[in-house]
Every structure is written in structure tokens, then in C-alpha cells.
């Protein structure tokens, strides 16, 4: 493993049998897994290049069990790694050798659907797609739709602030979550937000969404559900170059058009997807843009004509609008299958996640071609073009010595490039361990220390998901210490408590 994780606490490992016994009193039956071969499925998440067996796996079913587990671990100084479905692509759910892996898969019930208030209350183990399926009969859906929506869970979406193909118009997870129940490492159960649109005081809910399991364990989520638009149609637009496709994205937004979704793929991705899904993608283009317009039928027809005009002005060589709902879904099925389809063209791939200003798309795509030649590795580009969220798939073969290392270096250079042009290290996959050591490329030491102080306010002992996000984890006492100069505390005239 090229990424260094915290050293295992040998004293904790020496107490493993005692810890397992204590956990079994909290979660009886089959809720505790401690045999090595049975823990094997939990050794990694979607970033399979990194693997680590956990000390023990616990699968609670109730909030009370979660609270008792965390309270016990806090008292005994035991690390805890929360895990949803394990679809994270940043190593956010990578276990620790001396830690408890807290699996939330049994929290899989939809507790309430309130169509009048347009909300659903769900447990964190409910899959993303299950929410939309549960409300579809009434003409509603849940907007954030990651490509892994058939498997990824709402709890994991909250942890990573997941997006999806429709986040351009309808927002990320943070824009669609109204409340949650969270258990702190001390075992205290806290409720943030609720059915109402706004809450008083500090926006702690906004802090929790995207916190990657570092602040607490989510046991209930209140999500916003939306009415399905009257009409939705997707347009496939082919371009001779990726740069022209990137320029078209910026011009569509600049024209005041906000599509429901706007995705882009380059030639390697197009061919891999078409062979896999047979979605009807053109194979004689270098870049393919999928633009979805939704709303009243007359408005959609008008916007499609405007988008096609802009596309032709940018050099598009083909435009095809969906003529039925089945065809629209087929167009999107290809895009959502892009990651598994990449397995047809490479033994392994490394999926990156960075975000850039839309206007920089042509520059960044050109620079990525240069990096591909530098590292002698192929790359298939699939990304949320509308909001500049890139997902380059770096193609490599782990059986060839040195290729994984080159893929990692290639990926790091792509992320540095994102920051260089005014973007950020991640759009929706999170930092985890994958981008942890690149955080100084974007944040100063002062910035990182400020973020760690927030972590300390929730988890003073640093037991929740340690080794993730921060390249150097300080003790909370170090971050809060006062500097003494000449034997004097700062502002000696102020009263101290």
C-alpha cells in the first residue's frame, strides 16, 4: 500500500478477544463478524487498489446499538470506521487493522413518505434508487443520481455529498437533505434539521453532509423529493474534438440555459459504452455531449432547438434528440454504465474526481492528453460537463510492474491541474485516502488546522475514521494550545477560566 495509514495500536490488538466479546453483548446473534475469511468482503471499498483487513466488523440494526457501540469504543479508545455499501471511490471506508468497521447495511427501511411536505425519511442503508422507486407511483423522485445509484446508499451519499448526472439543475446531496439523526462518538444522539426547509442557529447539517464519517454516524436522513417534470428529452451531440465539446458546454450555460443534466464522453469511453449497452451512440466522433432538457413540452422543444443551434456553431457534426421516454432512458443508461464498460478496454482503471471552472474544459482536456503521453497510459474521459466535475478513467494493468504507481502519479497530476486552473480536488467522491496527501496543494496549513479543529469539536480523541482527509493528523490538544512568549500568555489582562 503506497498510502500510509496510522500505525496499528498493538495494545488494542492484544485486547481483540475482549473487544469482540463486548461488542457481541451489544449486537447479539450474527451482528459481529470476526473470522478473517468472513471479513474479506470488507477489506476495501470501490478504490480496490488499497486493501486492509479490519480488526472486527459490527452490523448494528438500531440507533441504540450504534450509540452503545460508539460509547464503548470512545471509553476504550478504539477507532471506528463507518461504512455504507462500500461503493466509495476515494478509500473513505478503508478499514483499520486496529479498528471496528461499523457497517450500516441493516439500516435499510424507509420510515416515512410525506407527499404533502415533499419529503421522505429513510435509514442510511436505503439505496439511492430505492427512494425514487418508492415514490414513483405518485409522480415523484429523488434528484441526486450517482452512477452507482442502484447500489450506493443514502448514508454514503451524505458522507461524500454525492452528485450525479442531474445535479447541475437540481443540486448535490447537500441541496436535497433537510435533516438527519447522527450519533456522536460519545454515544450521544443528535437530531439536525427536519421536515422544515430551514433551521435555526448554525448550519450543522451542512457541516455533516460531506464530512466523510469523521464527525459522527448518520442513522436517519430526511430527504427532499421532487415532482417529475412534465417532459424530459435528451439530445446526443457529436463533435470532431473534445475541445469543441467543452466549448459548447460553456456556451450553453452562458446562453442562460440550465439543462437537467449535461454529460460528456470522449472517444474511448463512447466506444466502450456502445459495445456494452448499445445505446445508439455515434462512433465516428471524438466527443459526445448528452444534454437533457426538462419542463413543459413547449419549453423543452424550444430549448432543444436553441441547444442544437449552439452546438452547430461550436462545430457539432451530429445531433439526435430522444423521441420517447424509453430512448431517453437508453441514452442515460449508456452514460451510467460508463465505469463498468471501461472494463472492456482495460484490465484495470483508476477513476479520478476533480472539478474545474467550465470555461477551462478545453484547456484541461488538452493538458490531459499530454499527461497521457507522458505516463504512457490511456485515459477515457467521462464527466459531469455542466458543473465541471471530471471523471477521467486512467487505464492500466495491475499485473504489469509499475503501472499502478504510474496511474497514481498521473491521477495526482490531473488533480493538481484542476487546482491550478481554479478548481478543486474533489466534486463528489470525497477526499478519503486517495486525495488526502494532495490537500496541501489546495489548502494552507492554517486552513487544514482550522478544519481539524472542527473535527476536534465532534471527536476530541480522533477515533472516527482516522487517517482519512487530513495529510497530517494533529492531536486536538496541539491544535488548541496557546503560545507563551516571555513567560506571558497572550492578552494577560483578560480573565481566564
UniProtKB/TrEMBL annotation:
Essential cofactor(s): FAD
A GO molecular-function descriptor: FAD binding
PROSITE patterns the record matches: FAD_PCMH
InterPro entries to which the protein is assigned, alphabetical: FAD-bd_oxidored_4_C, FAD-bd_PCMH, FAD-bd_PCMH-like_sf, FAD-bd_PCMH_sub2, FAD-linked_Oxase-like_C, FAD-linked_OxidoTrans_Type4, Oxid_FAD_bind_N, Vanillyl_alc_oxidase_C-sub2
One Pfam family it belongs to: FAD_binding_4
Domain FAD-binding PCMH-type: 50-228
Keywords linked to the UniProt accession: FAD, Flavoprotein, Oxidoreductase
UniProt protein name: FAD-binding protein
Organism, as annotated: Undibacter mobilis
Amino acid at each position: 500500500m503506497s498510502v500510509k495509514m496510522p500505525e496499528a495500536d498493538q495494545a488494542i490488538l492484544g485486547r481483540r478477544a475482549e473487544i469482540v466479546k463486548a461488542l457481541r453483548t451489544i449486537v447479539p446473534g450474527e451482528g459481529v463478524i470476526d473470522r478473517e475469511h468472513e471479513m474479506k468482503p470488507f477489506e476495501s471499498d470501490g478504490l480496490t487498489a488499497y486493501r486492509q483487513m479490519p480488526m472486527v466488523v459490527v452490523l448494528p440494526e438500531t440507533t441504540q446499538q450504534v450509540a452503545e457501540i460508539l460509547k464503548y469504543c470512545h471509553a476504550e479508545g478504539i477507532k471506528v470506521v463507518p461504512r455504507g455499501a462500500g461503493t466509495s471511490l476515494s478509500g473513505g471506508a478503508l478499514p483499520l487493522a486496529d479498528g471496528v468497521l461499523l457497517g450500516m447495511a441493516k439500516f435499510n427501511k424507509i420510515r416515512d413518505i410525506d407527499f404533502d411536505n415533499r419529503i421522505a425519511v429513510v435509514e442510511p442503508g436505503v439505496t439511492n434508487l430505492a427512494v425514487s422507486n418508492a415514490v414513483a407511483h405518485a409522480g415523484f423522485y429523488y434528484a441526486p443520481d450517482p452512477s452507482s445509484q442502484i447500489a450506493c446508499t443514502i448514508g454514503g451519499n451524505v458522507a461524500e455529498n454525492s452528485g450525479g448526472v442531474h445535479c447541475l439543475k437540481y443540486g448535490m446531496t447537500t441541496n436535497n437533505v433537510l435533516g438527519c439523526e447522527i450519533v456522536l462518538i460519545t454515544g450521544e444522539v443528535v437530531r439536525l434539521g427536519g421536515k422544515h426547509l430551514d433551521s435555526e442557529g448554525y448550519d450543522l447539517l451542512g457541516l455533516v453532509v460531506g464530512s466523510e464519517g469523521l464527525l459522527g454516524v448518520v442513522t436517519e436522513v430526511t430527504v427532499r423529493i421532487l415532482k417529475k417534470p412534465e417532459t424530459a428529452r435528451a439530445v446526443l451531440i457529436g463533435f470532431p474534438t473534445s475541445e469543441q465539446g467543452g466549448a459548447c458546454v460553456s456556451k450553453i450555460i452562458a446562453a442562460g440555459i440550465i439543462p437537467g443534466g449535461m454529460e460528456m464522453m470522449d472517444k474511448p469511453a463512447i466506444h466502450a459504452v456502445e459495445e456494452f449497452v448499445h445505446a445508439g451512440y455515434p462512433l465516428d466522433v471524438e466527443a459526445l455531449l448528452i444534454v437533457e432538457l426538462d419542463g413543459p413540452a413547449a419549453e423543452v422543444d424550444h430549448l432543444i432547438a436553441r441547444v442544437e443551434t449552439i452546438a452547430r456553431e461550436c462545430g457539432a457534426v451530429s445531433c439526435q434528440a430522444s423521441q420517447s421516454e424509453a430512448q431517453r432512458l437508453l441514452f442515460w443508461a449508456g452514460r451510467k454504465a460508463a465505469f463498468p464498460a471501461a472494463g472492456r478496454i482495460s484490465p484495470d482503471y483508476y477513476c479520478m474526481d476533480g472539478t474545474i471552472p467550465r470555461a477551462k474544459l478545453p484547456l484541461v482536456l488538452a493538458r490531459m492528453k499530454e499527461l497521457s503521453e507522458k505516463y504512457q497510459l490511456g485515459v477515457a474521459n467521462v464527466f459531469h460537463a455542466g458543473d465541471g466535475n471530471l471523471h477521467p478513467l486512467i487505464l492500466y494493468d495491475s499485473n504489469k510492474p509499475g503501472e499502478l504507481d504510474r496511474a497514481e502519479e498521473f491521477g495526482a497530476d490531473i488533480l493538481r491541474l484542476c487546482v491550478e486552473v481554479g478548481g478543486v480536488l474533489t466534486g463528489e467522491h470525497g477526499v478519503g485516502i486517495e486525495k488526502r496527501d494532495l490537500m496541501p496543494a489546495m489548502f494552507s496549513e492554517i486552513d487544514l488546522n482550522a478544519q481539524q479543529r472542527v473535527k476536534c469539536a465532534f471527536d476530541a480523541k480522533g477515533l472516527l475514521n482516522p487517517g482519512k482527509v487530513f495529510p497530517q493528523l494533529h492531536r486536538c490538544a496541539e491544535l488548541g494550545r496557546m503560545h507563551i512568549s516571555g513567560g506571558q500568555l497572550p492578552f494577560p489582562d483578560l480573565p481566564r477560566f
